[in-house]
Amino acid sequence: MSTEKVRPTKLKFKGEKTKKKRKHEDTEEGPSRRRRKEDGYEAPETWVLPENANEIRGPTFILHPSDPSPICITYDSTRGRILLQSVDKDKTDSSETPSVIEREPTDVSQVWVVTRVAGASTINLRTGVGEGKFISCDKHGIVSADREARGPQEEWTPVVFPDGMVAFQNVYEKYLSVDEVAGGQLALRGDSEEVGFRERFWVKIQSKYKKEAHDEEKKRKEGLIDTSSLDEVSTSKMYQAWGAGRTVVPSGDKKELKKAKKEGRLAEALLDRRAKLKSDRFC
């Protein structure tokens, strides 16, 4: 007796055409892609301009509209220094020249990673290559990227203007600018008192981080995010961290912060501690 199983088949009428099976997923040019285009959909990695300072986060591309060619802030991991490079250095005569705001990074060294503590107005700019160094500015206006820890000198406050351009203010209330040094070379300085052409930059972020900022703001307005419940350890890391994220918080500060947290005034205590850290560092 044969043990071969009988394959089940669907009954068909004679002459009925066989329909081909269609995959459920749409192709790249299928209906779902067309719908996304009609709905104004943007790919998460699309480079866009921020509309406010809170949107500046994640991978960031910073350009200056210099003449004759725009330049971008780049990090040379081999020499451990910041460079200002022309975005047209690889351009051929036959290639088209896009506008400044249409530019996108072409190398990972042109991308900086922006981080911030929740609820803070300041940001940190970390290299996207190498060991992760932060852009800092000392009291003399010297800008560098050679520190692995974040402190007051690594803090920047982005100011977004109505035209979409951005200025970066440091802890000394001076602005980041493009300056011409010996030999006609361009370098970054951090000692400008006012914002002019040299202090204005075009900043581009990725679409998914802009959406993330919008979602956070919506939740905040709806009361779904408690801005007063800041984590004291993660906040302290911004000022006293090194190595693999180790944190040192003086025992007296720990007691004060815990007491403030119980009394519902943690945010105020954190601001006081931040001011104390700044004064201790610069005195």
Automatic annotation (TrEMBL):
It comes from the Eukaryota. Belongs to the FRG1 family. Its main location: nucleus. InterPro entries: Actin-crosslinking (IPR008999), FRG1 (IPR010414). One of its GO terms (cellular component) is nucleolus. Pfam families: FRG1. It comes from Pycnoporus cinnabarinus. The lineage of its organism: Eukaryota, Fungi, Dikarya, Basidiomycota, Agaricomycotina. Keywords: Nucleus. Residues 8-23 have a biased composition (Basic residues). One of its GO terms (molecular function) is actin filament binding. This is FRG1-like family protein. It is found in: Nucleus, Nucleolus.
